[in-house]
Structures are given as C-alpha cells and as structure tokens.
Fold these 2 entries.
Entry 1:
Amino acid sequence: MSGKDGNHEDKFVSMVSAKVDVDLRLSDYAPCSKLKVAAHEVEQPRFPVIDFHSHLDAQSPKRVLGVMDACGVEKIVNITMRTGEEAIESIDRFHGAAPGRFATIGWMDWSGVERSDFTQLSLGRLERLVEHGACGIKFWKDIGLTVRDGNGALLRVDDERLAPIFDKAAELNIPVIFHTADPDAFFDPIDRFNERYEELAAHPDWSFYGLPFSKASLLEQRDRVIARHPKTTFVAAHMAESSEDLSHVATLLERHANLHVDISARTAELGRQPYAARAFKIRFADRILFGTDLVPEVAMYRLHYRFLETADEYFEYPSHASRQGRWNIYGLFLPADVLEKVYRANALKLLHANFR
Ligand SMILES: [Zn+2]
C-alpha cells in the first residue's frame, strides 16, 4: 500500500480521507432510513394501561375517552396545571365524565408564597384538593428556579418552610410528584454541539444555560427532601431527570425506598440505550410508572407499546413536534411480569387509597 512517490496521492488514502463542507440547512435535512427490519405495530397493550403522567386541562373528556377505548388505556392521571377553583372544576369535569377512568394530581399553588402563613395556606389547599378527589400533588420545576419568597429570595426545593406539606402528603396517603430541572442538554449552550439543538432552538425559553446554579444542585435539593420524608411517597418524573445516566437513577432508587420514577417524555432517551434501559426496567420493575406527558392520541400510545413490548429496531420515538434529538429508538421487549407492573400495577398501588 505504500505510495510510489510523493506527488501522487494513493487512491485508497484519498478515498478514506475525503471530507466536504456542505450548506444543506439542518431544517431541510430529512434522511430516510433504508434499513429493512421487522416492524410490529402494537394496537393493544398486553395489559390495561394507566397513564400516570398526562395533562388534560385543554382536552374534552369525551375525545380522550375515545382514544383510551381505542388503545387499551384503562385510566389516565390528569396532572392538572390549574389551581384553586379551576382545579376543582377540572377534577369535576373529568371524574364526572367517566367515574374510575380519570384520576387527578393537583398542581402546587404558589399564589401567596410571600405571605408568612403560606405553609398553613398550602396545607389547607392540599386538604381541600384531596377531599375533592385529588390523589397527588405535583411540584414543577418552577420551585428552585423562579419561585421567590416574601424577601425576594429564591425558594429552595428543600426549604424547611415547605417540609410540613410533604409530611401532610404522607398523612393523606398521596404521592408527591417532582419535576425538578430538565435534560442535561438544556443546561448547555444552544450551539452545534448540543444534542437537542433543534428542540432548544424551537423553545429557547427551555434553556437553562448561564444560570448561576447547576442542574446537580437542583437535583440535590430534591433528593434531600426525599431523604428527609421517608414516610412520604415520591415520584420523580421523567426518569428523575437523569435518563442520560441510568446508573445514577439506580443509585437513587437504591438509596430511597420511598421513590418511584415515571418514563414520561423519556422514551427517546431510554430507547437509544436499549440494553441499559431494559436491564434497568427489569431490575426496578416495582418502581417504574408508565406515563406519556403528550396529548392523548392513538398513534402516540401505540408507539409507546411498540417501544416497551417489541424488539423492533430503529424507529421513531413518540414526541412533541420539535422532537428531542436526532436519533431513533429500539424496543425493549420487556417480560410480561415487568410490563404488567410498569403499565398498571405500580400506578394502582400509588393511587389505591384515594382513587375516585
Ligand atoms: Zn408533565
């Protein structure tokens, strides 16, 4: 293979070293896979499904029920994003439309956070929600990032003033859902190295780049609360916001017996690491909840079933319009006992006491 002289480049060397700069716009690039691999559409899930993470406030119960009936969804947990009387109205609208098919998780109401009696106020609000049929309370990522107390200071997730609320949740036997921080890429610059570039370009407000504190510090605040309230059941949404590092999620679940995770909006992350994701789901089958965090649609649910049930390779993940990253996913072909727990049994355990 050695060249005969220095003036003529070897054909093979020039072939393997050729590179080119192109001007094709990223938004125009839409390659079509030429792979010929088995594809199994899963119309009905192997077991009835409980979607533990959905937001239905803008939906009509009738339309959603149509979707549920078409693709084997037994119940949806509506995490209402409304508060006060509007939350009560949302509970009534869904629970009244089809008893037993919908449950509701309330949204932490920060109005009045500047008041000195905010803790008492929150305890009363939580009791009212639960009396009205709510079966959980969600703390969104605004706590830790934007919610400020009466002195204008950022309220930490692990602020002692909030501790009685987590104790109250244990007393009421309802889980606390945390969505703290976001994917790792949201903390990086929105540039050509960012693996979720297109998503962040579509939603620049989702970027946390340049904040004075790290993602790790936010998650530490959350984890301190989970450790401080062992009698309270917690669900860390979106794979505890650490789906890029499943060994870390495993450590969390080992450390905190009161913690569950949901898979909502993370099939993209899980499906690009199918070996690790499959082993993780089998190992922690009792602690993982099925959830979508997308608008209920038949095709969306079926894509989730295909991901969890089949060994199909290299297919599109369920997503919002701007996608999450430029990759495809691989099915996890989970065993039946694992599927049954993830689809349904784990959710029933958490909803059990307060299911209306
Ligand atoms: Zn959500």
Note: Residues 336-351 form the longest helix (16 residues).
Entry 2:
Amino acid sequence: MTATASGIVGRGGEAAGQLFRSWFDGLTAAAEEKRGAAYVFVMGSVTELLRCFDFPIVFPEINSLQTAVRHVAHEYLNEAENYGYSPDICGYVKADVAVQLRRGAHPMGRIPKPALAVCTNACNTYIKWGEIWERMHGMPMFTLDIPGSRGAGVTSAPGSEDFERERAYVAGQLGELITLCERVSGRAFDIDRLREHLGHANTMQAAWRELIDCNRSRPAVFNALSDGTIYLGVANGFRGTAEGAAFFRDLLEELCYKAANGIGTVTKEQWRLAFVGVPCYPIFRRFAELFTHWGGVFVNSTYLWFASGGSHVDFQYDLERPLESLAAGVLRTVRAAMDSMFFQAPSLAEMIDPFGIDGVVFHPIKSCRTVSTGLADTRRALMALRDIPSLFIESDLMDRRVVSEAQLKNRADAFFEGLAARRAQPALAR
Ligand code: SF4
C-alpha cells in the first residue's frame, strides 16, 4: 500500500483486528475438529519451534484479557471462584479455568483443548496454571527453566563462559521439548521449517525495537498503553509467521510516516509518560482516558518489554545455526522479560531523556504479584536515580470489584496538577 496520509494512518489497528479475528476463527475451527493445541505464555512462548509441528497456538493470558476488555470477565471469575478458586489468585488463571469448564466457550469463539503446554519460570503462576490443565486434560506440561539475572545488571554477558553454560542448559531442554512435540503431534521435526519461523521472528523482533524507538519523536506516534496492547497481541499471537512479519513491516512504515509528518496519537500532547506494570483491562478505554484527557501519552512502558517476551532486546537468530541460536534467543529474551519485571529501575532511568518523559505511572495490580510485588521499591530506586514525578495507583487487570474508577481519577487528576505546577516553576522542572 502506498504511504499516503489517507491510506496509511490507522491501518495498523485495523489490520490487527482482522488478524485477531482470523486467529480466533482458526482456534474455533481447531476446537471443532478436536485438534489439540499448544498452550503457551507470552514470556517464553517458543512458538517459532511449536509452529514446526502445526499446533494451533493458544495464549491463555490473551484469552483471559479478552474477557475483561469485552466486559464479561466477572462472569468467568465468579464461575471459577464458585468452583473453588480463591478470589486472591491471578484473575487470568480463573478466567481460563472457567473457559475450560465451559469446554472452550469464549467471547471470541471456541478455544481448543491443550495437547501440551509449555511453561517457563518467568512467572511462578505459569507453572501452577499448567498443572491445572494437566489435571483437567491429562496432557503433558513442559517446564522450560531459564536462568535469570542475579540482580540488576548482574547477568551473564553473551559470549562469556557463563552465558555459554546457560545457553547449553536451555538448548538441552529445547531438545527434550522437540522430542515431546514429535511424540504428541506425530510429526518429525524439520529444521528448515524452524529456519523459516525464526526468519519471520527476526523481522518482528527488529520491528518491535524500532517501533518503540519511533516514540522518541514529538508528538508520540502511538500510545504504549492502548495501541501498544494491540501491537502486543499480534507480536505474541503471530510470532514467527509471515502474517506477523508483514504486519510489523507495515506498522513500522505507518509509524515512521507519522513521525516524519508530525502526526501524534493524542490531539494535543502535553505530557509524555512511562507506564510500569500491567493495564487495567476491565475499564481499559476509560483507564487510558484518565491520562489522554490531560494530553498525557504513554510513550513507553515496561509492559511493551515483558509482555512481548523480551522482544525489545537487540537479538537476531542466526539462521545458519538455528537450534543453537534458538537457545541463545530464548535465554536472552525471556531473561530480559524477567529483568523488565524485577529490575526495571535502571532501564526506566535511562529512557527518561531520550523519550522526553515528564512522569512515570506505576500500576501494581491485585492479580499479578509477579509484576506488582516490587513496584514500591522500584519507585524508590528510580527516585534515587532521577528526580522524576511519579504516580502510584492500584487496581486489577481482570477483577472489576477492586477497580475504583473515581479513586483512580482523583489520583490521576492530582498527578497532572502536580506536573503542571512543576512545569510552572522552571527551577523544579528538568
Ligand atoms: S501472575 Fe502476572 S505474570 Fe503471572 S500469569 Fe498472572 S498476570 Fe501473568
């Protein structure tokens, strides 16, 4: 498509909607044909590998958030709680349990049963969640153990002996996963198919980094909270596919066009913000409006880092050495995703100047202890590194019972008033 103002701006959102519908139509068809799916998670999905065995790919986290943005999550949560799950655990898990109890019935279609599940250690809930499917469906669950960083910046550098040991450890597990996939799918592993999927993943990963960088421009060309969540859906659901690669090539063209022509994502950009945590899906649009109403735009977020499975990392698969490179890529990206949840402060501090950030919004949520537990400490650590205003608000990603819109609005309004007062006093502003 020609990059004209009439044709290019807004086409990414439209294309994402079409891809999403086609994905869920495919899942519905798979469920009707009783084909077993590979259940995976956004941090370490290894879909590049699983696609070699023609598994339909199911991301239960994405299915669950879809129930929230479609305002029916409470029905699913109630069903799982009535079944015996505590109100206290991750809402994603409970919505999925209800989907399983409903034999796959979901607002976007029907979800096929799992033939196998791949869980990484990026979130401890992943592993307990996989055990639920094991009990319900009796299928195998594979746990991929990725060595994490030992502290902020305390990590094995690519090329070092430590890194090579860790890469070999991951490679050994991927070898076992291939054997399991061959057994479950009845298909032999084909390394040329893996090369093909890795090639598409390379295109997507490079584009992901570039699109995040596009938002250094003023005005910002996309909102990391709202548009970013849509892009994340495609980045995960279509990882390693020709459609995913084409989507991101086109999206990048759109965003570059907007940057070159000064086309922003909010009508009048006033404040450039960073978002830390997971969005509030039960009131997704209104949550974003708490900020856009004041001319606030999220130019970057830790969500774009960890929920893309670490795709912000500068890494490309070596197609001459696909298996070795897959292990290195999984190690680097999943570890980067974990770092984005546990050791974000230095990265946040580093992006303040290049992205021209005026304030940081921390949003811990009840459901997700993995992301939320350390956020108060992260805020303190960031304040020690940089003098930057921040807002700390709490709600949930699924459970509307703990979302108080009025309270969120009060806090957001006060935050913007504080930003305005700071800007009015040049000595305090950066
Ligand atoms: S606890 Fe957090 S990271 Fe883990 S599955 Fe739930 S939402 Fe995702």
Note: Residues 161-185 form the longest helix (25 residues).
